[in-house]
Each structure stands twice: as structure tokens, then as C-alpha cells.
């Protein structure tokens, strides 16, 4: 989506939340789907009962504070900025993104080649005319249709 928005001339921002902490790491859940939400909303101590407990540590609070600042700034003016943190560059032509690990780290070229591979698979599914093209990925994915010259 960020690549398509950028192609339309819209400033777009991408992030990877790959932050780990002891209880999540112990469960093999580093950076799982939605794991950034307690950090974005500042609810580190208010997670659901079966959620890996986030430690009450200054480093966790600092990461949450930075993420709160970035998201609040984005809502206010369309540019994610945080006090005393690196600028979050738009995706643009470099494929920039913010990597949230122990702290926010600007980076470029997230998972090189993955976008092109995904787009080709989606194109092949669409060209078959009888196969759902979205959200079926990984081990639950149906067999990919034969290559199509329109998808190169």
C-alpha cells in the first residue's frame, strides 16, 4: 500500500515493529501482529490477561513515548515526528521506513524483493480469473497459477 500511495504522489510512511522483551521472546512472539499497540497507545501495563507481560522498565516506557509522539504528530499534521528522536522519513524512492526495535531507527529497503514477489503472485492470481487474490498467503495459500506474460 505504501508503494502505491507513494506512486500517487502522497507522502507515505512504513514501519516494522520488531521489538522484543523477555516474556514475548520466551513465547517466541517477537514483534507479533498487533504487538505495537500497547506502545502506540501508552497502555503497557494494561494488556489482556494472556498477552506477554511488558516489563515496567524505563526502556519500554521510552519506546512507548517515542511511538506515542510519532503517531500523535502524524494525526495532527500528517508527518510522524517525535521529540528527541530521529526523523521518520517518507517511504519515497528509497523505500525508507522506521524500524522499531530497542528504539526508533530509520532504515531503507525493508525485505528487498518482497514487494515485487508479492505483486507478481497477486497478478498471477488475478489473471486466473477464478482465484481469490488477497490475504491468502503462506501455508494456507492455494497453488499459484501458471506464469502469465502480463505479470512480468
Q: What is the strand and helix layout of this fold?
A:
Layout: H1 2-7, E1 15-17, H2 22-26, H3 37-40, H4 58-77, E2 96-100, E3 104-108, H5 114-128
Parallel strand pairs: 1-2
Antiparallel strand pairs: 2-3
Please report the distance between the alpha carbons of the first and last residues: 20 Å
Low-confidence stretches: none
- Helix and strand run: HEHHHEEH
Number of helical elements: 5
Multimer state = single chain
- Widest β-sheet, arrangement of strands: 1-2-3
Indicate the overall shape. Answer: globular
Share of helix among residues? 25-40%
Based on DSSP secondary structure assignment, what is the total number of beta strands? 3
What average pLDDT do the residues reach?
91
Overall tally of domains: 2
- Strand percentage lies at 5-15%
Instruction: Please summarize the sheet with the most strands.
Output: 3 strands, mixed
Gyration radius (Cα, Å) is 18 Å
Helix/strand structural class: alpha+beta
Amino acid at each position: 500500500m505504501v508503494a502505491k500511495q507513494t506512486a500517487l504522489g502522497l507522502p507515505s510512511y512504513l514501519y516494522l515493529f520488531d521489538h522484543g522483551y523477555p516474556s514475548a521472546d520466551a513465547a517466541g512472539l517477537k514483534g507479533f501482529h498487533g504487538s505495537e499497540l500497547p506502545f502506540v497507545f501508552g497502555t503497557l501495563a494494561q494488556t489482556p490477561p494472556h498477552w506477554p507481560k511488558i516489563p515496567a522498565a524505563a526502556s519500554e516506557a521510552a519506546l512507548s513515548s517515542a511511538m506515542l509522539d510519532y503517531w500523535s504528530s502524524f494525526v495532527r499534521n500528517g508527518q510522524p515526528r517525535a521529540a528527541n528522536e530521529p526523523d521518520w522519513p517518507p517511504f519515497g524512492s528509497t523505500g525508507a521506513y522506521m524500524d522499531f526495535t530497542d528504539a526508533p531507527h530509520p532504515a531503507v529497503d525493508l525485505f528487498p524483493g518482497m514487494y515485487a514477489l508479492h505483486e507478481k503472485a497477486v497478478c498471477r492470481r488475478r489473471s486466473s480469473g477464478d482465484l481469490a487474490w488477497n490475504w491468502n498467503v503462506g501455508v494456507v495459500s492455494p497453488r499459484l497459477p501458471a506464469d502469465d506474460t502480463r505479470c512480468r
